[in-house]
Each structure stands twice: as structure tokens, then as C-alpha cells.
């Protein structure tokens, strides 16, 4: 299929889709010249004459019913030359019962809260959402109809909350610099208000949202009255300075001072430039490393703020795995058989920038570019103990470009390209995707999919492609979906993305039922039936399959429970575990299930409990485990969560080695224990202590050694003498203090220690394994970081006053 033909089909399909419409609630605002104090008093004269938005309606669980009179909610809006102001009175018959847990920024905790959703273009596609808890905690998100809420997005705004004798009051000031809107004399914005009464788990909105439709942003109301305002100069400078003190039992303590600058600049009313100069990611969260015995790499979450904030455009098509940037690449290196490479711990990021935004016509543009420095590694010769240096990561440029056109308030067509260019003779990579996400005017049906192609320039050039098509009914009590995907052998995105399987075609289906309003037993209830089949293209053999039935529900006391059954009735041909092309291992049929219970987090004590098991049919082979996580909220300031996970595999089968021309597999028993503690103590909504501890221990003992046969079966190997057992432990502890001493400005102090051990000796004594972790392995880091937020508009006034 040619690209021209693909584009023609997309726009023909789009022609059948029409916009979503409904009667909109509306509220008008007035301009104020008063100095509004954000003190949750609402005692300025301007508030008295402001129009009131009221008559909230239930979103969950009793969708569409009016808010009870005792929880009446009244909201007013004012505007000035530089900001909008929101004043909300939230009535409650029992103010002493209002939940108001103190947590750090961007977390709700166990609290009542209020929010405002603003869409400056009134296009039903993107909202900037601002929430304030009853404890005056702040949360802000960027919502898009295609990607949902992006909690990594942050803005600078002011708020205050105060408990009163009738409930509580919220007051907010949102500068225009935190919003996006067109340059027009008269503004018409999409608007909604949100309230949750936490102890009742009741959610309300000002503009009604029909949950049979699910198109939340298209059901917003209207804000009118804002006139003759100017889009501000959006220039923010965030200089920072960090000091690191690190040491261990084997390394001398050393100090390191870093400094740098982040820049955010509004190119126009729609697009923003973000740049980091001399990046510093030393205080990002640690990775939960595991003992990985499988054929694929472990995938980690992205914790670096630059690569998590405002990246909804770049996530289109799942072509970007930003952890690749700064990761040692898997390159074709000239290494002899008697040599080994000790790769560096990290590849330094020299600089990075991104441009993103969406204009008034619905065109979203994203551009991301990052450069990493040339990095050398040490190669050791096992014969003569000599060493040499080798280039493992050349100077590398990573680039992502996205064009996303939205139309009819609920549909989009996307072009995305990722490119990795390495200096010298190393491999280069390019991936291009054309995607579509189409909905009819009532948001009942969805058609989505795309076509992607990849090109690798290396010792051997490769070109591949991937095509997918999915159809779904997306509203009502009964819903369904089905789809198909094809991926060619040489489709390769792993230079800047992540993908494990290629050379297959698949079919999937889902049907589900849910209640839209509570009944006598449940507040929420949903049951799903899923199926998936994946075939290895050259042989048409099933390499993955699954039937799954699961349910999720919430009872009248707001306890959540669910469970499910997995059934795989066919043999699966695994072409990846042997680590050799065109060889496979036959996995037998299996069946498994799980249950899950989570008690209401509103209670001081709550617990999560999830046991699970999978059994291979007609074999003494299974895996089972349990997750248990009790939590206790001692007060609104202090809480503690303990997590325990135990996972056991009996007679698990997997690759361990090569010997001569044989592929060596083993039957092994594996036990994995994970203990974790997370705790917080909040002095206020802007000052917090946090503790995060994780201990992970996994051991795998090989019992029977086998050769993998050509037909995918196993035969006994009595000659193999290698020891490929595994005993792996890790320990991580982070203790941090964070203080937001001014809007957007933060000081943080972090003490971190970590340790890890790996050996081939099986020692099943928990105590000795744990103590061995800290013998000459413990590393210590103490860091202090200060970031200061400078708004150009404020700085300009400072200069004038000076």
C-alpha cells in the first residue's frame, strides 16, 4: 500500500465523521481592577457582583443526578489583565468530617478537592486542569481527548483553601501564562468545574457529563465575558545549583558541584520551547531493577522531568522510549572472544530541547532534540590482563517530530518521525508513522490504527513496516472492540523506541459489560472478555495466545475487588527464548487466575491483597505468588505503606547457555521476595519529608539440564557442568526533604544509599543474604539542589522598580 493511497483512505473515512454537539451550560465573568488577595476569604468587592455557577450534577457514581442541597457548590470567576480568579464555596453539612490529608505537590491524597478545567480554544480536545485540595495542595494536569490526563505537566499559579463553618472555600489565581488561548478581542473558553466529596466517594461536575458517551472534554460548558486581554510573554528561566557528596567502603568520599539552566519560552500563543543546558538528573527516582532471565531487556519508567513533562504528543504511536537517550546502545563492536567490555554507568546528555503546542485550528506540533556525548569504555583481555579503550557511544543526535491534526473535536490524524544519527560509521535509524484515531459524532464508534516504517543503516541495511487496524464501540453498557496487527521481520524501532517481538501477525478482541449507575450491591461493576492470538509469520504457528475473563467492582462501602481467569488452550511456539534465529521452544497449554481486594483508602487503615497462580496443564510446573500491602494514615501529616511481594516458579523452563552446537535449557525453581516501605511526613502543603525503601532478592536454582531439540522439545543433557544458578539482591533507600519556598522554586535535600550483589551460589538463608548486601557494597550519596523560578513578566517589573 503506498503512502498516497493510505492518506486518501484516511481522509475518505474522516469525511463520514461529524462533530459532537449538545446544549452547553454557560457562565459569564467580569473584569476587576482590584488587588485580589488569594486568602480564601472572597471579601473583595468584585466578588459580590460576579455571576454564580451552581447546580452541579453527579459524575460518579450516580451519573446525572443533581448534587444534594447539603453539598451545594457555588463558583465565581473574575479576570484582570494578567490572570483569571476563581472563588468557590463548597458546602458540607459536617465540616469537621472533610478529609484534608497533607501531601506533596501533584498528589491528592485522602482529601476533598475542587478543580477547574479550561479550554482556551473551546475545541473539545485539550483542557488545562487545576485542582486544589481542602488542605491547599495543588495538582495540575494537561488533558487531551486522545491521551487522557498528563500529570507531569506543571504550571505556576496560586491557591488557598480554608475550612469554614459551612464547608470550605477555595480561591485560585491562574495567570494567562499558564493557559493557551487565541489572540481575539472576545474570548470564548470551554469550561467545567469538578468537586469530589472524598468520604462519600462522590464526584460532581458543573457541566453534566454523560458517562454513556465518555467524551468528557466535549461536554464542557462555556465561559464568556473575557475581552481585550493579551497573550503574555511566556519566558521562564529556571537556574539551578546542586551539590553531591558521594562515597562508599571502597571509594574515597568526593564532592561535586553542578549548575545549569532550564528555559521555557512561549513562541506564540500556542507553542512553547523547553530547553535544558547542562542537565542534572541526580535526584531522580531509583529504578526497580530485577533479576532478568528472559530474552528481552527490562523496561524502566522515565523519571527525568524534561522527558516526562508535556510529552503527550511525543507518545503517539508508541515509538518513543526516552530512556534510550543516555543509554549505552547495543552496537556492533569489534570485540575478540577473550575480551569483555565494562560499559560506563551513564552517557552524558549535553543538551536537549523540545517545541510543542497546538494552534487554534487543532494542529499540534512537537519537536524534540537531544545530543549525547562521545563515550569510551574499557575492554579487558582475559589472556594477558591488558586493557584498551573503545568507543561504545559516539556523539549522537536523537530527534522526534510530530504533526497531529485534530478535527471534529474528537478525531485526529498524526504523522510522527523518530531519527537517531550517530557520528562516524556507527548505525543510524529512522522510523516514520502515519496514525489515525476517528470517532463518529456521537462518540459511539471508534476506528484507529496506522502504518509505520523503519530504516536501519548499519553493516546490513534493513527496512521494515508495521500496520494495524482496530474498531470499537465505545459507549453504553455493552461495548466491544476487535483489531489486527502485522509486523514484518525487519521492523526495528529500538534505537529510540522499544519493541520486543517482530515477524508476526495478530488478532485481538474484547467485549465488556458495565453498570453506568450504582445498584443495590455495587457502586461500579465491569466484566471483560478478552482474546488474543499472535502467529509467527514464516510458519503460521501460534507464538502467543490467551483467553481472559476478569471483573472489577466497587461495593457500597467503596471497597474494590476483582479477579480473573487466564486460559491458554494452545501450544505456543516461542522463537525468542532460544536466542538463536529460527529456533523455538514449545510451551504447553496453561490456565491461571487471580483475585484482588483493596479496601477503602479513606479509612486510616487499608490493605491491598492479590494472590495469583498459573499452572501448566499435565505438568508439575506452575508459578504463583501474592502481593500484600497494608497502609496506615497516622494523621493528616504522617502515613506509612508497607509492600510485600512473593513470587515462586516451580520447574520453570528457560535458556541458560550454549555448549558446542547445543542450546542449553534448564528446569529451575525460582523464589523472589520484594519488601518495600514508602512513608511521608508533611509539615505543610509545600514542605514534605519522604522515605522510599526497597529490598529485592531473587534466586534461581537449575535442577535438570536439557538440550533444546529442533522440534522445540527438550532432551536430557548429562554432560553439562557449568553453574548457571543465580542469586541476586538489591537495596535502595531514598530519604528526601522538599520545600517549595516560592511559586515554581524548590529546595530539595536527598540522602540515598544503595547496594547490589550477584553470584552463582544458592544461599536460601534470608538473613545472611541480606547482611551480605552491605559488606563493601553500600554506596552513599548526599545531594542538595536549589531551583529558582524566574518569570520574565515579574522580573521586568523588578527592573522597573529598581
Note the main attributes of this structure:
mainly beta, nine-stranded mixed sheet, disordered N terminus
Task: Walk me through the structure.
4% of the residues lie in helices and 53% in strands. The strands form 5 sheets. It has a 24-stranded antiparallel barrel. Strands 1, 3, 6, 7, 8, 9, 12, 13 and 14 form a 9-stranded mixed sheet that branches. Strands 2-4-5-11-10 form a 5-stranded mixed sheet, with no helix packed on it. With 802 residues, it is mostly beta strands.
What's the SSE blueprint?
Elements: H1 3-14, E1 26-28, E2 30-31, H2 45-48, E3 57-60, E4 73-79, E5 83-91, E6 113-119, E7 126-133, E8 138-144, E9 148-150, E10 158-163, E11 167-175, E12 189-197, E13 202-205, E14 221-224, E15 235-248, E16 254-266, E17 271-277, E18 339-342, E19 349-358, E20 363-372, E21 375-381, E22 387-393, E23 396-407, E24 411-422, E25 428-439, E26 445-457, E27 462-473, E28 478-487, E29 504-514, E30 522-536, E31 541-555, E32 560-568, E33 572-574, E34 585-587, E35 590-598, E36 605-616, E37 622-633, E38 638-659, E39 662-684, E40 687-708, E41 714-716, E42 726-742, E43 745-759, H3 766-772, E44 779-787, E45 790-791, H4 792-801
Parallel strand pairs: 1-14, 2-4
Antiparallel strand pairs: 3-13, 4-5, 5-11, 6-7, 6-12, 7-8, 8-9, 10-11, 12-13, 12-14, 15-16, 15-44, 15-45, 16-17, 17-19, 18-21, 19-20, 20-23, 21-22, 23-24, 24-25, 25-26, 26-27, 27-28, 28-29, 29-30, 30-31, 31-32, 32-35, 33-34, 35-36, 36-37, 37-38, 38-39, 39-40, 40-41, 40-42, 42-43, 43-44
Amino acid at each position: 500500500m503506498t503512502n498516497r493511497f493510505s492518506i486518501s483512505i484516511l481522509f475518505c473515512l474522516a469525511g463520514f465523521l461529524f462533530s459532537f454537539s449538545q446544549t452547553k451550560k454557560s457562565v459569564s465573568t467580569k473584569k476587576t481592577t482590584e488587588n485580589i488577595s488569594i486568602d480564601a476569604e472572597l471579601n473583595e468587592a468584585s466578588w459580590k457582583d460576579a455571576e454564580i455557577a451552581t447546580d452541579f450534577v453527579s459524575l460518579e457514581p450516580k451519573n446525572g443526578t443533581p448534587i444534594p442541597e447539603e453539598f451545594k457548590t457555588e463558583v465565581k470567576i473574575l479576570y484582570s489583565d494578567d490572570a483569571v480568579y476563581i472563588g468557590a464555596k463548597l458546602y458540607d453539612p459536617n465540616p469537621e468530617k472533610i478529609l484534608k490529608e497533607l501531601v506533596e505537590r501533584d498528589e491528592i491524597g485522602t482529601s476533598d478537592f475542587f478543580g477547574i478545567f479550561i479550554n482556551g480554544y473551546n475545541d473539545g480536545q485539550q483542557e488545562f486542569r487545576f485542582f486544589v485540595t481542602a488542605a491547599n495542595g495543588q495538582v495540575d494536569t494537561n488533558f487531551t481527548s486522545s491521551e487522557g490526563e498528563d500529570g507531569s505537566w506543571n504550571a505556576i499559579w496560586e491557591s488557598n483553601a480554608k475550612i469554614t463553618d459551612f464547608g470550605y472555600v477555595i480561591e485560585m489565581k491562574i495567570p494567562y501564562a499558564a493557559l493557551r488561548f487565541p489572540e481575539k478581542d472576545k474570548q470564548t473558553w470551554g469550561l467545567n468545574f469538578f468537586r469530589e466529596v472524598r468520604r462519600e466517594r462522590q464526584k460532581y461536575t458543573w457541566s453534566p457529563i454523560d458517562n454513556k458517551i465518555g467524551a468528557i472534554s466535549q461536554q464542557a460548558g462555556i465561559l464568556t465575558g473575557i475581552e481585550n486581554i493579551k497573550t503574555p510573554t511566556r519566558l521562564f528561566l529556571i537556574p539551578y545549583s546542586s551539590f553531591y557528596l558521594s562515597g562508599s567502603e571502597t571509594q574515597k568520599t568526593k564532592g561535586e558541584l553542578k549548575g545549569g539552566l532550564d528555559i521555557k519560552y512561549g513562541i506564540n500563543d500556542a507553542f512553547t520551547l523547553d530547553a535544558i543546558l547542562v542537565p542534572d538528573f541526580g535526584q531522580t527516582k531509583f529504578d526497580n531493577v530485577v533479576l532478568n532471565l528472559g530474552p528481552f531487556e527490562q523496561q524502566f519508567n522515565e523519571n527525568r522531568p524534561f522527558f516526562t513533562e508535556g510529552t503527550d504528543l511525543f507518545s503517539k504511536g508508541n515509538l518513543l522510549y526516552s530512556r534510550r537517550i543516555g543509554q549505552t546502545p547495543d552496537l556492533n563492536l569489534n570485540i575478540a572472544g577473550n575480551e569483555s567490555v565494562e560499559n560506563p554507568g551513564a552517557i552524558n546528555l549535553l543538551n536537549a530541547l523540545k517545541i510543542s503546542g497546538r494552534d487554534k485550528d487543532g494542529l499540534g506540533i512537537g519537536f524534540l532534540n537531544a545530543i549525547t556525548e562521545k563515550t569510551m569504555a574499557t575492554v579487558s583481555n582475559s589472556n594477558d590482563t591488558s586493557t584498551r579503550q573503545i568507543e561504545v557511544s559516539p556523539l549522537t543526535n536523537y530527534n522526534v517530530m510530530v504533526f497531529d491534526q485534530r478535527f471534529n473535536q474528537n478525531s485526529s490524524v498524526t504523522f510522527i518521525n523518530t531519527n537517531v544519527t550517530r557520528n562516524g560509521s556507527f548505525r543510524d535509524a529512522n522510523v516514520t508513522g502515519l496514525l489515525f484515531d476517528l470517532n463518529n459524532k456521537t462518540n459511539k464508534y471508534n476506528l484507529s490504527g496506522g502504518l509505520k516504517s523503519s530504516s536501519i543503516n548499519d553493516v546490513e541495511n534493513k527496512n521494515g513496516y508495521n500496520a494495524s487496524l482496530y474498531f470499537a464501540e465505545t459507549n453504553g453498557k455493552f461495548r466491544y472492540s476487535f483489531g489486527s496487527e502485522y509486523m514484518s521481520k525487519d521492523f526495528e524501532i529500538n534505537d529510540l523506541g522499544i519493541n520486543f517481538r517482530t515477524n508476526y501477525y495478530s488478532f485481538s478482541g474484547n467485549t465488556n459489560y458495565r453498570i453506568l449507575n450504582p445498584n443495590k450491591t455495587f457502586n461500579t461493576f465491569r466484566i471483560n472478555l478478552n482474546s488474543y492470538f499472535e502467529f509467527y509469520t514464516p510458519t503460521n504457528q501460534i507464538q502467543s495466545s490467551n483467553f481472559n475473563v476478569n471483573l472489577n467492582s466497587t461495593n457500597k462501602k467503596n471497597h474494590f475487588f476483582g479477579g480473573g481467569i487466564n486460559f491458554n488452550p494452545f501450544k505456543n511456539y516461542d522463537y525468542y527464548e532460544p536466542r538463536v534465529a529460527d529456533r523455538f521452544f514449545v510451551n504447553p497449554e496453561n490456565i491461571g487466575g487471580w483475585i484482588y481486594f483493596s479496601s477503602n483508602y479513606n479509612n486510616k487503615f487499608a490493605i491491598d491483597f492479590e494472590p495469583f497462580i498459573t499452572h501448566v496443564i499435565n505438568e508439575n510446573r506452575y508459578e504463583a505468588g501474592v502481593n500484600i500491602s497494608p497502609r496506615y494514615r497516622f494523621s493528616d501529616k504522617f502515613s506509612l505503606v508497607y509492600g510485600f511481594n512473593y513470587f515462586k516458579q516451580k520447574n520453570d523452563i528457560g535458556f541458560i547457555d550454549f555448549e558446542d552446537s547445543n542450546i542449553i535449557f534448564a528446569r529451575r525453581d525460582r523464589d523472589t521476595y520484594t519488601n518495600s516501605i514508602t512513608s511521608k511526613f508533611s509539615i505543610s502543603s509545600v514542605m514534605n519529608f519522604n522515605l522510599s525503601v526497597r529490598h529485592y532478592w531473587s534466586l534461581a536454582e537449575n535442577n535438570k539440564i536439557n538440550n533444546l531439540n529442533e522440534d522445540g522439545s527438550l532432551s536430557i543433557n548429562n554432560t553439562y557442568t557449568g553453574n548457571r544458578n543465580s542469586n541476586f539482591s538489591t537495596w535502595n533507600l531514598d530519604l528526601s526533604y522538599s520545600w517549595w519556598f516560592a511559586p515554581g522554586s524548590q529546595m530539595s535535600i536527598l540522602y540515598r544509599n544503595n547496594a547490589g550483589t550477584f553470584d552463582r551460589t544458592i544461599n536460601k538463608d534470608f538473613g545472611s543474604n541480606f547482611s551480605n548486601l552491605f559488606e563493601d557494597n553500600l554506596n552513599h550519596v548526599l545531594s542538595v539542589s536549589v531551583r529558582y523560578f524566574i518569570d520574565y513578566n515579574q522580573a521586568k517589573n523588578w527592573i522597573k522598580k529598581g
